[in-house]
Fold these 2 entries.
Entry 1:
Amino acid sequence: MKFAHIADVHLGREQFNQPFRYDDYLGVFREAIEKAVKADVDFILIAGDLFHVSRPSPRTIRDAVEVLELPRRKGIPVFTIEGNHDKTIRETSVFDLLEHLGLVYTIGLKREPKKGEFQESKKLSENRYLVWGKVGDLEIHGLRHHTRWQLIRGDVNVLKALFKGKRGILMLHQAIDYLAKDTPYQDAFDLRLGELPDGFSYYALGHIHVRRTAEPSQTGLSGPLVYPGSLERTDVREASHLIRYSARDRKPKVMENHEAKGFYIVEDFIPEFVEVHARPFYSVRVEGSSKAELRRKVEEVSSLIPRDAIAVITLEGVVKGGVSLAEFNDLLKDSGIRYYTFRSRVVGEAVLSKERLSEEELFTEWEKELLLHLRVDPKEFSEGLSEFVSWLIERYREGIPQKAVVPKGTPKIPEAKRGESAEVVEKSPKKAKAPEKPPKMKPEKEKKHEKKPVPKPKNPASLDAWLRRGKP
Ligand SMILES: [Mn+2]
């Protein structure tokens, strides 16, 4: 039995608002699928975030259909789950469309039973079925992305309850603490290692964008935990190369970051990494104590960056009077570098950026996780409010990530003191604001209960209760 395990494709993403990045993300997806088909796999897993958004454009859907037709023509089934980026609270999603076209099989909780050559299901409650994939005797279980407070509800571990006694493969799109170290999810993990259901021969994971694996001998689980990482370089932290000035000879050095991008081909549950050709991505850091020094060094490093690369150049240092990023754009204008952008951590006075920051750059992982929790169906949110509040309180008791608060980008408005030291980080208004949220919400809930003559049970502490409410 041989299969391919792909995750975090983010099809449709135009990173840095650059149309050529759309083609890059599509190109590595096509490459991965072609390589899987060529390796004659029995099936393909896509462990969440096939799409960058839950409502992809017609063009993105067309391109996905075109690529997914390659395995279908060979009779190779593709099993998917929805990730945090492409899940939807709507009745019908793009995955229903792909499934209808016979291009993918989505697994997890469904409103309707499924039965076919590659699918099986079991009724759990009224209008709720657990659907899994099957290839020969092998079962492929999984669940779309859920937030931690949806999965771990008081004494109920929804995953352990749903998949009790199941065998085969488990596909999830969640950050597991054990493998989240030194990733953006270190402090924003969804599950602890011990919260995973045991008994599976392979844990096909998605969500963490860097490649990570753990053997059963390390985890005590019955099979390996595997994150293939994203197919493209989605963040400067996934850079292929670093350019840094060495302290010794004050010359810039190019270092390979050894962060290959790709996916796994798994035979007898032993994963073998297969690389895809993601675009070179350079993370450059230039320090200086004057604008002239920074400009000289930018010119110096530009000759080390290949023309087809993306470069994120971070300016650092203390410069009297500050610098404006616009003052650097003329330097690389004729360099031919495919795309470059400057970021500033220069301390002085006003630092202006022409860049429009995306949500991804503006918020820390912890803040994004919080937003994700708030972005559910209002009905589901209000019903799960007490769990949400206890989750939040638990998170604050554990201590909110310190590191994640360091601002990455440059704000649009001038801000003199940013990035000076850890003290500034401590004072970050974003961090200070968050704890106010639960108290603000609580009164709303109490009001609601006053109006209702028969309040619902506060903590539905059973799997049945969990299945009856909200959407799968
Ligand atoms: Mn992702």
Entry 2:
Amino acid sequence: MTAEQRVQSVDEGKPAGVWSEFFEAVKPLVSAATRIVHEERLGTKTTMRVGGAARIYAEPASVADLQVLLREARAGGGEVLMLGRGSNVIVPDEGVDGLVVSLAHQAWSSFEPREDGRVAVGAGLRLKNLCGLAAKAGLVGFEFLEGIPGNVGGALRMNAGAMGAWMFDVVEEVQLMTRAGEVRTLTKAAMHVGYRHCEELHQAIALGALLRPATRSDAETVKRQMDAYSRKRHESQPREPSAGCIFRNPPGNSAGRLIDESGLKGARVGDAEVSPTHANFIVNRGSATAADVIALVRRVRARVREVKGVDLEPEVLLFGKEWKDVL
Ligand SMILES: Cc1cc2nc3c(=O)[nH]c(=O)nc-3n(C[C@H](O)[C@H](O)[C@H](O)COP(=O)(O)OP(=O)(O)OC[C@H]3O[C@@H](n4cnc5c(N)ncnc54)[C@H](O)[C@@H]3O)c2cc1C
């Protein structure tokens, strides 16, 4: 890549030819099991079902292939973004000028219980499968994850939580890869986590984690608790495509209640709607665009500020962008 192209890649996005060069350079370096393609549409890989394509999209089949992708992208100055199950992101309509990496390959979906009850899981393991396998093994403590539509990597990055617990309550160690391709293991004590936040994973990529259950029981009991949580979710959350709670709860307050009391349930921009079931969900009624969702986020924030005097901050991430640039 010439110096001129390098500058352009940082300032204005890479020209298509440079991504082609990246693709041609990387393809022979990764194993045949790694999927790598141009212009992959991302909307259907997210639960909100909006947004454009990734210039390059890859599903690495191994640690070595992920290292190759990261190192080549770094050498070319290109941006790399991780995509989990896409349940906490809005992909912009124009797509993403970068390499989007997903740990969707089976190699990242491991679930390995140890003698002492601890379980090593891959970052690509769906939370739904984690819950199912934990229940089968009689491991207590993961029930709160039932119904969160992400994978382990996304749940670690977001410190996903529900029913009074969050992901890092059950984490002992996280195995991660730095952007330079170095593999490290960090104990929970060495990590900085909080509400929907894990500082280390803003940059590094989670490869897997060692989880510790609270205790052991029989499969039936664990399953019964999961079913109870699942019922609670079904009663309180909309069924339409969404990205979960759109705003963070302000300290000591509920974003959903503030939005509801501002009279916004059912408010619409195009096919994006503030759910009448749960005011902190924006749902896609069919053919919403990312622009519709962003415009509705803007409208909700403005109204809640006017009526309640509270500035709501999005919990959902704008993929490859910063909310402050569009709000
Ligand atoms: C119907 C519905 C209900 C929901 N309920 C809840 C809930 O109860 N509690 C809750 O906390 N959330 C909830 N969510 C939001 C969402 O499911 C969680 O935030 C989930 O943890 C996101 O995981 P994901 O795999 O989909 O990540 P994505 O949405 O794909 O990504 C989220 C972030 O994680 C990063 N990321 C993904 N994989 C990795 C990795 N391996 N390493 C480093 N970074 C990575 C991405 O780059 C992005 O920044 C809900 C969403 C929906 C649609």
